[in-house]
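User: Let's play a game. I give you a shape written as tokens, and you guess the letters that built it. Ready? Here's round one.
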């Protein structure tokens, strides 16, 4: 009996040690809602109403694996695989990539890490916390989708210095789905992306700053770069959090100066009860040298059924002025040219 007890104890100790050295986590989100839009073009181009199921309205639907191995001396090997999908159809997201939301491996210490692979850009991770809706479908992303961009073929450093976080990213070709999108011999600027980010959060007040530069994805456009500088601030006071954000955008080519713009947004989040929260925000794009300056408003109500499941109602109104053509989901074909648009989404989200 003593021998069996010793063997059982030893097995338990070995299992505990193995668990401490290596950890693998399966995680995911399924977010699906019913969206209703007005002023969408029908087959003849006339204004019509559209009703459809839509995925990833608050959080992108995804599943993934992440893990780490203890290498000793405070050093760990880490990896992250995250697959985005459309929960209304089951199709892979991010242009059909298997792990389009992230795929990287690296080394991490107590306060520093270096990773290689597909990563969020610096705008995504360092400006996202300053959008009141958390970069939901109707948010600052409506005005600029690159605020939640990702980069293939990236090397990224992340550091934590007490209340200060910082990051730096270099991509050899941010869109590997393009035939000649990067990593071309003799043309290192094709598809190159650079980014840096800082966030300081000592308490109720938090600040974020991020810079991103993307070069063209062809031999002809490699010398042209889109530059974005964004900043955000938030302040928490009891059950209310206030937000403000700004993004400056300019291409380096004078021939493309008409695309330059300033984007402003702000809003409030109110935690009415532990389970129910409300958000109100507005965003405005000032297109430099043009009167085409769209304005959007968004309202979001979220009710948590549990720690993992939530119901939500998200609504937005896009006001187009001076010839702008912005829908509640962005600058795309889902709005009749010159019209304003209203969108409403009712959905459910579950985390696992």
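Assistant: Ready! My guess for every position:
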């Amino acid at each position: 009996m003593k021998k069996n007890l010793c063997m059982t104890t030893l097995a338990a100790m070995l299992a505990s040690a193995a668990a401490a050295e290596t950890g693998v986590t399966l995680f995911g989100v399924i977010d699906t809602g019913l969206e209703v839009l007005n002023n969408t073009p029908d087959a003849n181009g006339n204004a019509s109403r559209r009703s459809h199921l839509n995925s990833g309205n608050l959080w992108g639907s995804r599943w993934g694996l992440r893990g780490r191995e203890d290498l000793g001396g405070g050093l760990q090997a880490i990896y992250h695989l995250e697959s985005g999908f459309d929960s209304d159809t089951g199709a892979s997201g991010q242009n059909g990539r298997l792990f389009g939301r992230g795929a990287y491996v690296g080394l991490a210490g107590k306060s520093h890490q270096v990773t290689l692979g597909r990563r969020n850009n610096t705008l995504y991770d360092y400006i996202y916390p300053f959008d009141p809706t958390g970069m939901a479908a109707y948010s600052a992303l409506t005005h600029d989708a690159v605020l939640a961009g990702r980069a293939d073929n990236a090397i990224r450093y992340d550091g934590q210095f007490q209340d200060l976080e910082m990051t730096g990213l270099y991509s050899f070709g941010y869109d590997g789905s393009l035939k000649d999108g990067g990593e071309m011999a003799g043309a290192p600027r094709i598809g190159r992306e650079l980014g840096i980010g800082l966030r300081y959060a000592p308490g109720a007040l938090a600040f974020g700053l991020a810079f991103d530069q993307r070069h063209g994805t062809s031999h002809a456009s490699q010398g042209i770069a889109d530059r974005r500088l964004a900043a955000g601030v938030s302040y928490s006071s009891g059950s209310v959090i206030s937000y403000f954000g700004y993004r400056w955008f300019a291409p380096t080519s004078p021939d493309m100066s008409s695309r330059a713009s300033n984007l402003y947004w702000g809003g409030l989040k109110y935690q009415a009860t532990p389970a129910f929260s409300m958000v109100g925000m507005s965003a405005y794009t000032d297109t430099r040298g043009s009167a085409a300056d769209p304005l959007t408003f968004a309202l979001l109500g979220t009710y948590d059924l549990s720690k993992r499941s939530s119901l939500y109602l998200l609504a937005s109104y896009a006001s187009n002025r001076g010839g702008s053509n912005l829908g509640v989901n962005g600058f795309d074909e889902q709005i009749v040219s010159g019209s304003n648009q209203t969108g409403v989404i009712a959905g459910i989200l579950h985390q696992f």
